Amino acid sequence: xxxxxxxxxxxxxxxxxxxxxxxxxxxxxxxxxxxxxxxxxxxxxxxxxxxxxxxxxxxxxxxxxxxxxxxxxxxxxxxxxxxxxxxxxxxxxxxxxxxxxxxxxxxxxxxxxxxxxxxxxxxxxxxxxxxxxxxxxxxxxxxxxxxxxxxxxxxxxxxxxxxxxxxxxxxxxxxxxxxxxxxxxxxxxxxxxxxxxxxxxxxxxxxxxxxxxxxxxxxxxxxxxxxxxxxxxxxxxxxxxxxxxxxxxxxxxxxxxxxxxxxxxxxxxxxxxxxxxxxxxxxxxxxxxxxxxxxxxxxxxxxxxxxxxxxxxxxxxx
Length: 318
Fold this sequence. Notes:
Blueprint: H1 6-40, E1 47-49, E2 54-56, H2 61-95, E3 98-99, H3 106-119, E4 125-129, E5 136-139, E6 147-151, H4 152-157, H5 160-175, H6 178-206, H7 211-254, H8 257-269, H9 279-282, H10 298-301, H11 307-315
Helix pairs in contact: 1-2, 1-6, 1-7, 2-6, 3-5, 5-7, 5-8, 6-7, 8-11
């Protein structure tokens, strides 16, 4: 993959962020539309009722759809705003990351600050995970929240050039606005995952005892499941590409592609951070260990390209 340049990638990611902000709500509204259609659309015409000695009007599809639409939009808006504002705290809680003080590790601060000065960007916050495995990630949506998090293992087991390559990779994610793009996608996928779980729990609650209730729940499960998998494909396609671009950006920034290639080889041997159990958080890391749990369909849902391919492309820079 040829590196297209930092400004081109920033413009592309800004466009992708906008498209995601349109695509995910549109998918959510499509899901709501289908649910209302299946639940009321099939009964939109008057039906004869012997008990009422005449015809009764079933719920009107359009009326029901429009009546519930404001509640759907308000609920999604509240969810998005809370997640958007509190994402940094949520991610730190999920990874067990703590602030890395300058006096604790001047080496890391020097590497980060030198690279930031080189490209004229503010120094992001720096955090550390108390874990001997090797991994790192960047997060944040603006200058106030941008941060780089390194595991204790990656700091201790990589030499300066290798660690500089990893930091360059994470800084490129920030410069490219990858972190903003991914966080937006994570928030919306989380909404679909929540709705799918609610539908499944409703099925357990009804237990199929009520014919109409069971029918409604089965429709809800089918619609939410389809929309959830579509949202996953949207997110994973973006996630894979951004790793190649961040690798190339690090190579351009440090002028030492061999160093990042060497770092990736070491990271690949032990990337598992014990505190991280959430797949959404795991995909933020430079190497997602969840991808190594191979199954028949695993390749479709990998958030990162194969690390061997990334190393091969980096070695072409040499």
